[in-house]
Task: inverse folding
């Protein structure tokens, strides 16, 4: 026969066989018929509120990134337009230059202001320190 300790305990008794001790007080759930009832909290309101908050924050961040991306695209297009134009001088960083279109639809960069030039005026640009062209008007 087996000893008293080796006998199987009733189902309602929580006994850890490895540690050889009762541990119902350590369980995160009820282990006895007399234990308080575990009520599942309705988390749907919390989840909806958190979901709304996250979606609002992510949408704001997305719009911020989209605006920054569009600004970069615009800057790249402006820079490309100026670099594709013809000019016979080396532009100086920080100086303003004017972009014109000739009769043959060729763009050129000039130091002449729109008042001093009769060609089609496309805009004034400033060469930034990163060698990108910023449109001024």
Result:
């Amino acid at each position: 026969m087996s000893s008293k300790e080796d006998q199987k305990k009733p189902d309602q008794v929580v006994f850890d066989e490895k540690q050889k001790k009762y541990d119902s007080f350590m369980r995160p759930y009820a282990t006895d018929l007399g234990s308080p009832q575990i009520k599942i909290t309705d988390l749907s309101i919390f989840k909806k509120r958190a979901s709304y908050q996250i979606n609002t924050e992510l949408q704001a961040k997305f719009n911020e990134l989209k605006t920054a991306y569009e600004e970069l695209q615009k800057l790249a297009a402006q820079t490309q337009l100026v670099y594709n134009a013809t000019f016979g001088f080396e532009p100086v960083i920080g100086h303003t230059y004017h972009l014109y279109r000739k009769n043959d639809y060729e763009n050129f960069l000039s130091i002449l202001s729109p008042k001093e030039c009769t060609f089609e005026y496309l805009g004034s640009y400033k060469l930034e320190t990163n060698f990108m062209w910023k449109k001024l008007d």
The helical segments are 44-83.
